[in-house]
């Protein structure tokens, strides 16, 4: 059965996450439940906070939302974050939430823009 509303959270609110957040915030069929980034002053964190969306510097806080979260988008580019999110889902028995990798985000943004979008990541470790 198709969703009428996608409950989404995003990990990574810098150069890659911010354009994605703008699109998610503009979509009437998306409820943005939270945004995480190590930098509380990252552009996407400020944008989310300004729009009344919960922000956190602990990405695991988003994983703890459990099955109320449909899609957890990881645009950090950090393999350890992706692995940690997967492990959290397994340990809690959450078989509902889908973790979306930055490569899927790159594909979707490229399709929306009609050309290949290059994702930007810094070297910050989590």
Mean pLDDT: 91
Total helical elements: 5
**What does the overall shape look like?**
globular
User: Tally of extended strands?
Assistant: 5
Radius of gyration: 14 Å
**CATH topology assignment:** Rossmann fold
Q: What is the strand arrangement across the widest sheet?
A: 3-2-1-4-5
Unreliable segments (pLDDT under 50, ≥5 consecutive)? 122-126
Under CATH, the homologous superfamily reads: NAD(P)-binding Rossmann-like Domain
SSE order, as H and E?
EHEHEHEHEH
Q: Report the end-to-end length measured between terminal Cα atoms.
A: 36 Å
Sheet-strand content, in percent, reads 15-25%
Largest sheet: 5 strands, parallel
As a percent range, the share of helical residues equals 25-40%
InterPro entries: Asp/hSer_DH_NAD-bd, NAD(P)-bd_dom_sf
Protein name: Aspartate/homoserine dehydrogenase NAD-binding domain-containing protein
Organism: Azospirillum lipoferum (strain 4B)
GO molecular function: NADP binding; oxidoreductase activity
């Amino acid at each position: 059965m198709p969703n009428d509303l996608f409950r989404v959270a995003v990990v990574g609110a810098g150069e890659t996450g911010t354009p994605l957040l703008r699109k998610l915030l503009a979509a009437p069929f998306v409820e943005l439940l939270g945004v995480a980034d190590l930098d509380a002053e990252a552009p996407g964190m400020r944008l989310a906070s300004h729009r009344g969306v919960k922000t956190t510097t602990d990405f695991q806080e988003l994983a703890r939302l459990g099955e109320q979260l449909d899609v957890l988008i990881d645009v950090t580019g950090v393999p350890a974050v992706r692995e940690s999110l997967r492990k959290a889902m397994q340990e809690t028995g959450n078989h509902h939430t889908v973790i979306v990798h930055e490569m899927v985000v790159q594909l979707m943004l490229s399709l929306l823009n009609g050309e290949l979008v290059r994702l930007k990541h810094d070297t910050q470790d989590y």
